[in-house]
Amino acid sequence: MITHQYNLNTGSLLDRFGNVTTGSNVSFDRKKKGLALLCNGINGKFELGDIGNVKSLAFWINLKNIVVGKPEEIFEGDPNAHLILASAGTLSYPDFDNAFVDGIDTDTITTGWHLLIVTSTTDVACSDAVLALNNAAFGEFWCSKIIVYDHELTSNERSKLMSDFNSASNITKSIDVPLSYPKNQDLSGEVGIVAAYNMIASPGQILTDISGNGNNGTIVGAVQSKDGLVFNGSNDYIDLGSTQELDEGTILYRFNQKGFSANESHIGDTSQNFIIFASATSVRIRISGDILTFTIPEYIFGQWADLIFTITNVTGDHEVRCYFNGVESSTGMQLQGANDPFAYSYIGWAIGLDYFNGEISEVHFYSSIFSAQDVKNYHNKFARQIEQKITLEEGVGSDI
Question: Are 325 and 6 in contact (CB under 8 A)?
């Protein structure tokens, strides 16, 4: 059976089964097989963690180079152990038994997209698995999917995987289709909810607070889409009325930003409180003048994503964490030393900054603090909308 599956072509680093992973210095590119995780050969890696006893591994992989004297580190199951390498176009996998490239039993691999399957007749214990790392050396390639099995794949299973791989050509368009997922209409019973907006306009350009707490907003210019509200980047925003303050809790939202602007505010109040992209690989939250910057896997502008911030009030400080697409920022926890609350009055703007350009499908504010599992659960509901669309076009309908 499949024990772990990473559908990187959806733009998510999460295991299909919800297990924790970490990406460091990696980014997503649009490629033939959907989105693909780029490992840069310098310091990029994808940490899978403890994936248990393994007998088969399948990779949708595209090596950037086949260079003599420069092995490409594809996988290690433990530090400097249970390795899969490609050196000058030849695979090595000392703790496994066989390699299959595009369905053929061979140790030869070239640049370009391939289905690489490595199998073993006995268990290979992988308690600290990492993609693109061998000790201190890094691999340079794209990867769109990783599947881990607890059994040696049969010929029929390998053939089915090959069919799925071949049918997955040119599917990036499926990622861009509207989400059109069912909208929550009433979150009044949700624990810790302060305000919630499903981004569906009510008569009179009112944005109703579906938490039941009466924190309704006024839509200024933004127009309705199938997935939420579209902001033009010039003068569209949501006015939430009087300034609200979140001293402790969770901020979460789903968005699709059309392009990069260093001052394009997602949520905020004035220039002292806002959330923006500092770059395609970093997100910035400012709380009462204190700026905290978090590193994230590269955001592909024009794609749907979710951001979550948790703020924990401790003596004299706020502990702030950032999660992008269900995975905590590699920056980890940061302290906001003034212990001031995050103030917000607008969605899609903050006074003194630029207006948001794109779509927002929902925004929630909680007085409770989401756990890492809560974050994953929220993201998975969102990611499955995309994965289902990709799966239908790939033809992947089983756990093979």
Answer: no
